[in-house]
Write a structure and sequence with these properties.
By secondary structure, the chain is of the alpha+beta class. The protein has a single domain, classed as Thiol Ester Dehydrase, Chain A (Roll). Helix content is 22%, strand content 39%. The protein has a 5-stranded antiparallel sheet with strand order 1-3-4-5-2.
């Protein structure tokens, strides 16, 4: 299942070249991930209350075109893979339907008490749903 998270590019996100600076894409992906989970019935606060959180352990991004100040983009999110303790989400930044950037981020489920990684619990697995990658494996 694909979820779409809207975002309008803010002035502070644009660099001297007139396009969004690369680090902002990871922030957008984090915002879109929390929106995706909430849309699927798991608000982030509920996940934390269950004693679970997620940590980013890997991210890859491929840029195809820049986006600029006040561009209204949509960030598409889908589950790419679910493992025992980690999962991957695919992201596409779309401007007027054209993919300007694509990425995949791997998250590991951890305990909120600092005791380390955990097997993906049912409440997170249910929110992730069945993998339907946007990107090739």
């Amino acid at each position: 299942m694909t979820y779409t998270h809207p975002h309008t590019v803010r002035y502070l996100e644009v660099d001297a070249q007139g396009v969004v600076f690369n680090s902002w894409y990871l922030a957008w992906f984090d915002d879109a991930m929390t929106g995706f989970l909430a849309h699927r019935g798991l608000p982030y606060a509920t996940m934390l209350e269950s004693g679970h959180d997620v940590q980013l352990v890997r991210s890859e991004i491929d840029w195809r075109a820049g986006v600029g100040f006040q561009d209204a983009v949509d960030i598409a999110v889908s589950t790419a893979r679910i493992g025992r303790t980690s999962f991957a989400l695919d992201f596409e930044v779309r401007l007027d339907g054209t993919v300007t950037c694509a990425g995949r981020t791997v998250y590991v489920v951890v305990a909120t008490d600092g005791s380390g990684k955990r097997t993906i619990p049912a409440l997170i697995a249910d929110a992730l749903g069945k993998p339907a990658p946007l990107l090739p494996a």
